[in-house]
Amino acid sequence: MPKFRRSQNRTKVIPLPLSIGGWCLVNPGGDPFGDAVRAPTLTDGLRACRDAGITHVSFHDRDLYPDDAPQEIIDEKVDQVLRLLEDSGLKVLCFTTNLFSNPCFRSGAFSSPIPAVRQAAIVKGCRSVHAAKRLGALNIIFWGGREGTEVFEQDSGEGVRNYLLGARAVIVYAIAQGYQGTFTFEPKVYEPRFHSFAATGAAMGSGIREFFPETELAARVKINPEYPQHVAMLGLNPAIELGQLLEEDLLGPCIHFGGQPPCRMDADFAPGLGGSPTDDFHVCKLLHDATYRGFVEFDCRPLRTSASEHAIRLFARQCVAYWRQLEQKVVTFRRDPIIRALQAEIFGEPIAQLEDVLTVTMPNAAADSNVVIDAVNRLPIRTFAETAAIDTDAIEAFGYRVQQIVCGTHREGATMFCGTRWAAAQAKTADAPVESEAEEASN
Ligand code: NOJ
Ligand code: MG
Questions:
Q1: Residue 425's pLDDT band (cuts 50, 70, 90)
Q2: From ligand 2's centre to the CA of 18, what distance in Å?
Q3: Of 15, 16, 131, 298, which is the most buried if we count CB atoms within 10 A?
Q4: What pLDDT sits at residue 382?
């Protein structure tokens, strides 16, 4: 049997639920060179989100109460937020301990070479567990903004070990306290530290495998990437990283999402600004092809040029509209006859002997040597010249067609394919009704 190919998934595109960082809503628009330009309230922000169709919100501990707040103040502040949430109808998705703003974490938090600092990070993380439980947070995030170095004052391997074991202490404590949710690490390639530990999805995935080997923990400890910001700022492509996270079952219950000009400082622009709509489309398509059911959480903010109290409303609408447009484009892609013809040609027919080789050599297959050797010898390849003669023009054509779909020019763009072998497929199916209701996006 040919393996199910996710990239040809044609199931229903179910719109993903949406969330936002509470810190984004109250962002005052200051930057390292300039003062605040606005003073937005959480109440207004939550209303704007509710009206736009965002159903969840996330908080850092420090967004709600000062780091040294006594328990009564923490309880009071959590109560206040619960009331605000009741009024706005939003629920809490993630809770995260801010281990980057307090000057005590200037040498790192979980990963600091200084034991007294590592201990402070663990205590702060464990305190957050109680607030997370009270708020009903479904997930606890660890973003290691300060987990890194500039001068390699400690062995970088030990830095990673301290980072992950410190977070592990908080996770094990949370489970001991009866916290039922999941935990995610949010990697970021660099900034504010110049060199960050476990800074990409791949590096963090490998860290999770090493430091959370137990089945129960491995099922609950995952990654929430931030796309495109946390990878595109180094010129990496989010769709490459996301594909691997999905393939290796390392994706947590949300991704962070926004806009980012490539190879620049973390911009946290609104989605659609500054980045590549094609990469954004592929992120959306990968999630839907994998029938992901987690949240898209916007971790971005209005530009500093937006200083009026109205800006947040349009910003919230842009977040939602842009993501929904991407989902609509996934529907268009899946229905597109030219794409179907191109995919049919690119993926070709399965080769039974190839499947056999992959079966007997796959992880834990434990086939004996003769079986493996026989299977490889049965591969029906004759000359490499024959393989080189295979027509692969469909791959570039696929790129053109995706670009048309992303730009919304696929109707007029179809004429460009006239006279190609993929246009024939279009003629055959163009007037056919949509095959089933299952292909409709429900938004
Ligand atoms: C950095 C990370 O993207 C995010 O998740 C973190 O908690 C916020 N920005 C804090 O500003
Ligand atoms: Mg983020």
A1: low
A2: 14
A3: 298
A4: 87
What average pLDDT does the structure give for the chain? Answer: 95
Would you state the pLDDT for residue 426?
A: 58
Q: Which residue has the CA at smallest separation from atom 2 of ligand 1? A: 143
Range of the domain at 390: 337-441
Residue 431: pLDDT above 70? Answer: no
Report if pTM > 0.90.
yes
- Residue 111 · residue 197 · CB < 8 Å: yes
Same domain, 313 and 353: no
Cβ–ligand 1 contact at 96 (below 6 Å): yes
pLDDT for residue 4: 58
Which helix H or strand E contains 254, and what residues bound it?
strand 254-257
Per-residue pLDDT at 436: 42
Q: Does any ligand 1 atom lie closer than 6 A to the CB of residue 404?
A: no
Contacts of 281 (CB under 8 A, 6+ apart): 326, 329, 330, 333, 402, 405, 406
We report the CATH number of the domain holding residue 300 as: 3.20.20.150
The DSSP annotation for 205-220 comes to HHHHHHH--SHHHHHH
Q: Are residues 177 and 44 in the same domain?
A: yes
Residue of 19, 62, 186, 229 to test ligand 1 pocket, by largest number of atoms within 8 Å of CB: 186
Ligand 1 in reach of 299 Cβ (< 6 A)? yes
CA distances from 179 to 40, 47, 130, 175, 184 (A): 32, 29, 9, 5, 14
**23 CA to middle of ligand 1, Å?**
8
User: What pLDDT digit, counting tens, does each position of 274-296 carry?
Assistant: 999 999 999 999 999 999 999 99
Residues 305 and 429 in one domain: no
Together in a domain, 381 and 313? no
User: Does one domain contain both 208 and 354?
Assistant: no
